[in-house]
Design a protein that fits this description.
The structure is a single chain. With 317 residues, this protein is mainly β.
């Protein structure tokens, strides 16, 4: 499987993302003491030609870090989300302190997403304070706040196809789809699972399809043209699904990671997963490379981050 791992300095891994600019670069955020107390760290790692992960940059924050987002307009800008309700904007050329800190959320910020449609450079954040906020990365205050969930907002995701469209999922069991120019009520709101919903991601090939992952261990996909029933359901995880990623290279591949210590890559045509069990604790972070078709990464509470090539990504039939 060509697995390469890197130890996270006795920190528990929370999120990993591939750089949209530098082909063999990933960023990972990890926190001391399971994020309950102590510092959080941002690790910038490069995969060497000899297939080793090497530390390029490391930054530290005074509270736990739980998610990150690479800028879509500059290779050296990274955002992190922290347990103190803050969002930090880092310049990797001067990584000792963040260039900018936003602190408007009243509780932990658990998800960040930078708009990928290229028409605008805007960032979303979701929080345990039940809100989603919209930010201009060059501004000092949020542009607006979206209130529509009655519980923690675990995940927020821009549509890769539709400008001003994003989705959020929550502990209130719902999936909401929003118009970012209208911060009133969501355009669509549906009960996605009979449990808390921790994860969502849009299909990169069908603008109407979005997948959700729940504490029930199920992955469901929804066609927004008809939300009466899921368009498919993936059953296999034994515990909560923490994160989902559709492949940017193959329309029928969807990856999920879980508290059951596995990462799975599903072929949605066959509803069968390829199961990876190289971690010894909850798998919290997951991403596909947008620049290298055969690479994916995950990170875990077992204090490691890994890059590997699932055999399924090599099978394009």
């Amino acid at each position: 499987m060509d697995l390469v791992s890197f130890p996270l300095n006795d920190c528990h891994g929370y999120s990993v993302k591939f750089s949209p600019f530098i082909e063999r670069r990933i960023a990972c955020v990890a926190s001391k003491n399971y994020g309950l107390s102590g510092s959080g760290f941002l690790f910038i790692l490069d995969l060497s030609p000899s297939n080793h992960l090497t530390l390029a940059v490391q930054s530290q924050w005074t509270d736990g870090l739980f998610d990150l987002a690479f800028a879509e307009d500059h290779p050296d800008i990274v955002l992190t989300a922290s347990g103190d309700g803050g969002i930090q904007l880092w310049d990797l050329k001067t990584p000792e302190v963040p260039k900018l800190v936003w602190k408007e959320h009243s509780r932990e910020v658990c998800c960040l997403d930078w708009n990928q449609t290229r028409q605008q450079q805007l960032v979303l954040s979701s929080s345990w304070d039940r809100s989603v906020k919209l930010w201009d990365p060059k501004g000092t205050n949020s542009l607006c706040t979206f209130i529509g969930h009655s519980d923690l907002v675990y995940n927020v995701s821009w549509s890769p196809h539709l400008p001003n469209c994003f989705a959020s999922v929550s502990g209130d069991h719902t999936l909401c789809v929003w118009n970012s120019t209208k911060p009133g009520q969501p355009v669509v709101k549906l009960t996605a699972h009979a449990s808390e919903v921790l994860a969502c991601d849009w299909s990169k090939y069908d603008r109407n399809v979005i997948a959700t992952g729940g504490v029930d261990g199920r992955v469901r996909a929804w066609d927004l043209r008809n939300t009466s029933t899921p368009c498919f359901e993936l059953i296999g995880h034994e515990y909560a699904v923490k994160r989902l990623r559709f492949s940017p290279h193959q329309a029928h591949l969807l990856a999920s990671c879980s508290y059951d210590m596995t990462t799975r890559v599903w072929d949605t045509r066959r509803l069968q997963p390829e199961v990876f069990a190289h971690h010894r604790e909850f798998v919290y972070g997951l991403d596909f490379s947008c620049l290298t078709p055969d690479k994916m990464a995950d990170c875990s509470w077992d204090r490691t981050v890994s890059i590997y090539t699932p055999p399924s990504v090599l099978n394009t039939v």
